[in-house]
Amino acid sequence: MMTLTGFYFDGHSARRHSVTLELRDDVLHLTGDVTRSDAFAAVDIPSPLGHTPRRILFTDGAHCEVTDYAAFDAMFPSTQHGLSLVAQLEARWTYVLAALAITVAIFAAGYVWGLPYAAGKVAERIPEHMLVAMDDQTIKTLDQQEVLQPSKLSQARQSALISRLRAMKWPQGAAMPGRVYFRSAPEIGPNAFAFPGGSVVMLDELVNVSDNDEQILAVLAHEMGHVTERHAVRNMLQASAVGLVMTWYVGDISTLLAAAPTALLSTSYSRDFERRADDFSARVLALNGIPPERLGELLLKLEAAYADKEGTRPEWMDYLATHPNTAERVRKAREKTNTDAK
Ligand SMILES: [Zn+2]
Questions:
Q1: CATH number of the domain at 3-80, please?
Q2: What is the mean pLDDT of the chain?
Q3: 196 Cα–ligand 1 center, Å
Q4: Per the confidence metrics, is the pTM higher than 0.70?
Q5: DSSP letters along 43-99, please?
Q6: What is the DSSP string of 20-39?
Q7: Among 46, 134, 151, 278, which is 20 to 30 Å from 226 by CA?
Q8: pLDDT category of residue 64 using cuts at 50, 70 and 90
Q9: How many angstroms does the Cα of residue 322 sit away from the middle of ligand 1?
């Protein structure tokens, strides 16, 4: 008759008892320090778990441990599931790979959906006065670094543009343009920025390249679309997971402030953000009786202006990099005009 030696634990104390196990007529008999007999059907034998002792669990909480794996499997062949070693390894590897795939998928989902979602939620929570403070510091820094230089536009021209901007109607819930700064920036070229707090920087180069004020207002309306939906803040938060966490828990936007001047100018918006800003611009233009193609017209002029400057423009301030697919957007604006005209 086959027997097996092992240790018995009564489930109450850590003390181990040496026992001999014997399976006879479907009854498991223990002898030695402890004597007990249990119907084999009533005991539980868990699957092997690495190099840990094989275990036999009794219904009352007691258990046996056996380290002689070969003898154990010989006595309880059914618990080995008849798998060869290779098959067992394969089963284990399949499990490990599946677990790994699930882990990777969870992280990927967190990155693709979770991070933008969190950034969007945090961006909504940042109070407007903080964003305005961020604007002020950013513009101050850009002035100090002489990225922005004094405007050469006449006071009359500046006042006229401000009047037109102030007279514009905006959709309900939209961010309104805040302070307007006139600057020149030959390095940047024709452009206008709206910073996250709604401050507007209008460059001489843009004013000079435009055919009319409506084109300038169209670009500003597009920029205010980014402001309204807080695209720049969302981008900055996403780019800096640390900033996101700090802002979320501590309500401290200093990490954002430090990165703002560079981040705001080099921001590259997703196609989705650009489309939303274009749609916003179209709504604003319609609200103000300005033909929607004004935005496309100016974008084509900008594209031409940059084509002339090829090779000299700094890559990080490329309007076309931050506002890609001009042709597609112009086409879309035209289609919209045609549809509206019908
Ligand atoms: Zn844009």
A1: 2.30.29.160
A2: 80
A3: 13
A4: no
A5: SB-PPP-TTS-EEEE-TTS-EEEE--HHHHHHH-GGGGTT--HHHHHHHHHHHHHHH
A6: EEEEETTEEEEEESS-EEEE
A7: 151
A8: very high
A9: 7
